[in-house]
Write a structure and sequence with these properties.
eight-stranded mixed sheet; about 40% strand; about 400 residues; mainly beta; globular
Length: about 400
């Protein structure tokens, strides 16, 4: 949970299994609703378990992987394990590769000849390689809203991305099996893992737009996860089901609150999660005028800016001058509204206030309209001062 002034942004992940116990841990709900392929291009389907999972499984080993194959199982030739960090989508090191054969359509269990120790300080990536075939969709997903960057990671052509970036819903049907280390390793000679460095390449915007990764859905909606309920101090606070893995609790007084989440299925509600305490401090004083934001900190937190989605980032190479705040197209969104809002300013004793900024647009096409609108809050309502539409195409750096 992140405390921001008098609002609290809650983020959570929905995982199956208990990492503190021996057994399977997975992001998907075990029901195959979608197939994914990349034509003849090889790709890796990967589930990432960050330290939110591995810290609970520290001291155990990853000794097996269960994968579901939708069709043409001979295309799946190996199961791999990598390690990395929470912050980076791509792993740093491949620590195990298991060659596989004679797999079947449906669930397949692959035992690792060398169990991988779970340190609790690294993220673990578990996945398999599909060699590719035209018009074939071998990799299975649950077709639901994914925990983006966890259950839906993809490697293709040396670059790492997610299914969400290709507008494909679902988490891979990949289950990691954790076991107690002592029984597994008893009688085995210690094995030094052969680390293989990963070619960490960020997939470019153009590559994402032209990605061959495609999906096919089969319409199976049994046990569909509808969303979540959110609780503050034991009381449900959402009036409608929360479809995303995030919720903004607004207008809170300074205090300490206990939050919890609950999965909502069509058949029944899941158990309420454990609570996490969040302390809301009194809001900071307004920022004195005059004020200039040059983004020298390369972040939004320094001057308490609020952003509406992960599409907002920092571009250190472009600006007037660089760096600049940038709204990107990935992850793809439609019918959206995403704010970039300043903190409050203190205009006491100032007769008039001037609002000015530089704007640049590198437009992809004019087939769909995206509009940027700038507004000022007068203490009661937002007042629109102007806007720019992508239908007017590219815009060089312009001062408004």
């Amino acid at each position: 949970a992140v405390e921001t002034q008098v609002n609290v942004r809650l983020n959570w992940a929905s995982i199956y299994g208990d990492p503190t116990q021996a057994g399977y841990v997975h992001w998907d709900d075990s029901i195959q609703r979608g197939n994914v392929g990349a034509g003849a291009t090889p790709f890796h389907a990967v589930a990432k378990y960050g330290t939110e999972v591995t810290a609970l499984a520290a001291g155990k080993v990853l000794d097996g992987v269960m994968i579901h194959i939708a069709e043409e199982p001979q295309l799946i030739t190996s199961v791999k394990v990598w390690t990395g960090t929470d912050a980076d989508l791509a792993p740093l090191t491949m620590v195990h590769e298991e060659t596989v054969s004679d797999l079947t359509v449906g669930w397949n269990y692959v035992a690792l000849t060398t169990p991988v120790p779970i340190t609790g300080t690294d993220a673990i990536y578990v996945g398999y390689l599909s060699t590719g075939m035209d018009a074939v969709y071998p990799a299975s997903t649950d077709g639901l809203t994914a925990v983006n960057g966890r259950g839906n990671v993809v490697e293709i052509g040396g670059s790492w991305t997610t299914l969400t970036s290709s507008s494909i819903a679902g988490s891979w049907l990949i289950h990691a099996h954790f076991a107690d280390a002592a029984p597994i390793m008893a009688g085995r000679r210690p094995v030094v893992l052969q680390n293989v460095a990963v070619n960490n390449v960020e997939m470019t915007d153009e590559a994402l737009r032209n990605s061959p990764v495609k999906a096919r859905m089969n319409g199976n909606v049994d046990r569909v996860l509808r969303g979540f309920n959110v609780y503050r101090d034991g009381v449900q606070i959402n009036s409608e089901i929360v479809a995303a893995y995030t919720y903004l609790d607004e207008g809170l007084a300074a205090d300490t609150y206990d939050y919890a989440a609950q999965a909502v299925h069509y058949s029944a509600n899941g158990p309420i999660s454990g609570t996490i305490p969040v302390t809301v401090d009194p809001p900071a004083d307004p920022i004195a005028l005059p004020f200039l934001e040059d983004w020298a900190s390369s972040g939004y937190d320094t001057n308490m800016w609020s952003i509406g989605s992960s599409n907002w980032g920092m571009n250190t190479g472009i600006g007037n001058p660089a760096p600049s705040a940038s709204f990107g197209w990935s992850p793809r969104v439609t019918d959206y509204s995403s704010i970039l809002a300043s903190y409050e300013f203190d205009a006491t004793g100032i007769a008039s206030v001037r609002f000015s900024f530089d704007l640049n647009l590198d437009n992809y096409d004019i087939l769909a309209e995206n509009t940027m609108t700038w507004e000022v809050w007068d203490g009661t309502a937002w007042n629109t001062l102007g806007s720019y539409s992508s239908l007017d195409d590219d815009l060089g750096w312009t001062t408004y």
